[in-house]
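HOLO CASE FILE
Compound: pyridoxal-5'-phosphate
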Amino acid sequence: MRYSRRLDRIPPYLFAQIDRKIAEKKAQGVDVISFGVGDPDVPTPDGIVDRLCLEARKPENHRYPSYFGLPEFRLAASRWLERRFGVTVDPSCEMISLMGSKEGIAHMALAVLDPGDIALVPEPSYPVYAMGTLLAGAESHFLPLEASGGFLPDLEGISTDVLARAKILWLNYPNNPTGAVAEMDFFERAVEFSKRNDIILAHDNAYSEITYDGFVAPSVLQVDGARDVAVEFHSLSKTFNMTGWRIGFACGNSDIIDALGTIKTNIDSGIFNAVQLAGVEALDNRQQDVDRMVGIYRERRDLLVSLLTSLGWEPSRPLGSIYIWLKVPDGFDSVGFSEQVLDRAGVFFTPGNAYGPSGEGFVRLSLTVPDERVQEAIGRLEEVFKVG
Ligand SMILES: Cc1ncc(COP(=O)(O)O)c(C=O)c1O
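Model generated. Tokens follow.
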């Protein structure tokens, strides 16, 4: 059998290697505590599950859903954007439902890029921006995110040759994996840059609701005129502990939304109506659950940051996202340090270079580990790594 050349372009998946390593440890009887995957450990709030059960029983919800999302869902999402960011979006043409934002992000590449085109992709980053680009037959031009630059890309340093072929700029703040946040003035500069260079600005705002210490994450659509060039991706996954439900939405420039819709109508047939109506319940009525989750993540962040600091290591203290970005101690690289922690303490941190070459020298810890396991991991790390 022969497969597409496209598959040959997909690099070996570092996460598969990592899974193997963890599986080996488990097979040896080690009770591994993994800070790897960013998948909320706390269940979806009851009110959302109850609404799903109610709606799942209604025969009218059993048929094919609307391609662009139920009007009720798009209205709820636009009400939420208005309440949260003061942004008004027309739910009939500036919004589309997504089967999780990952799906929309990957399909954006098919809507925008042809072979020979360039996507401007920050790194380290969520892998889907670059993988979508690759599957569309286009190229990623990587923009390194470095601690010295606040993990923001240097847009003005991009060469004119690259800009001439660039069609889309990806951004993601609060950021996975670095936990960095961006202020409004950065988004203003990004919108101006995108307009000047005739580039689509795609902002992945999956962690907009998970912020700490008074920081409130902006939407790119709050920038005046952003709608000329920008779309924003939102996800209910992390906000409402709904990763398994597969629901999110994209909003912004109506032509870009329409282009994404054209790809999607030919590939998927929308989200189960009952899930969309449960999404309406989440967006309209579940702010108290979001606040409770943010409180839980903040406590875990504080516990881990103080432990890691006491071990002489240098963790970030993120203002957003569910990730701590930890600089590896001198003498280690990312994979070496991750292996050391796994071998000696049975604790797993993801090597930073899994997210791009500029992630070398860091590991990522996800805060989605239950409290008692966080305590257990802290005990083990203290025992093994405490100096003096
Ligand atoms: C930055 C970022 N964007 C998007 C997603 C995808 O979320 P979902 O497809 O569950 O909406 C994730 C998931 O980890 C993420 O970290």
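CASE NOTES: The longest strand covers residues 118-123. Residues 287-310 form the longest helix (24 residues).
CLOSED: yes
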